[in-house]
Design a protein that fits this description.
InterPro entries: APOBEC/CMP_deaminase_Zn-bd (IPR016192), CMP_dCMP_dom (IPR002125), Cytidine_deaminase-like (IPR016193)
Oligomer: single chain
Pfam families: dCMP_cyt_deam_1 (PF00383)
Protein name: CMP/dCMP-type deaminase domain-containing protein
CATH superfamily: Cytidine Deaminase, domain 2
Helix content: 40-55%
GO molecular function, one term: tRNA-specific adenosine-34 deaminase activity
Keywords: Metal-binding, Zinc
Order of helices and strands: HEEHHEHE
C-alpha cells in the first residue's frame, strides 16, 4: 500500500482480509491474489484468483469479486464501494473497475507488468 495516501485502520483491516484470501489462493495452486469489496463498512463480496481451477483466464481476483459484488447488490454499478486487492490490477481488471464504477481502489503492491 505504498503511496503518500493516509490509510485508515479500516483500510488496513480490509487489506489484511485480502491477504488472507491471497494465501488461500496460493494454497490452492492459484496465483496468490485476493480481493474484497466493501460498502458501508461491511464486506459485500470477496474472492481470489481462480484462473487455474476455473480454467478461465479472466478469473482474476478483482473480476471474481466484482461479479460477486454485483450479484450481492443486484446492480452492476458498484458506486460507493471500495475494492481492496493485494496486487495492482492488470489492464483487464482496471477496465472492469472503471466499467463497474467502483468508487475507490486500494492495492497492496505494485505490479511491474
Amino acid at each position: 500500500m505504498g503511496s503518500s495516501t493516509q490509510y485508515t485502520d479500516d483500510d488496513l483491516r480490509w487489506m489484511r482480509r485480502a491477504f488472507t484470501l491471497a494465501k488461500m489462493a496460493g494454497a490452492q495452486g492459484e496465483v496468490p491474489v485476493g480481493a474484497v469489496v466493501i460498502k458501508d463498512s461491511e464486506i459485500l463480496a470477496e474472492g481470489h484468483n481462480l484462473t487455474q481451477s476455473a480454467l478461465d483466464p479472466t478469473a482474476h481476483a478483482e473480476i471474481v469479486t466484482i461479479r460477486a459484488a454485483a450479484i450481492a447488490l443486484s446492480d452492476w454499478r458498484l458506486t460507493g464501494c471500495t475494492l481492496y486487492v493485494t496486487l495492482e490490477p492488470c489492464a483487464m481488471c482496471a477496465g472492469a473497475l472503471v466499467l463497474s464504477r467502483v468508487s475507490r481502489l486500494v492495492f497492496g503492491a505494485r505490479d511491474p507488468k
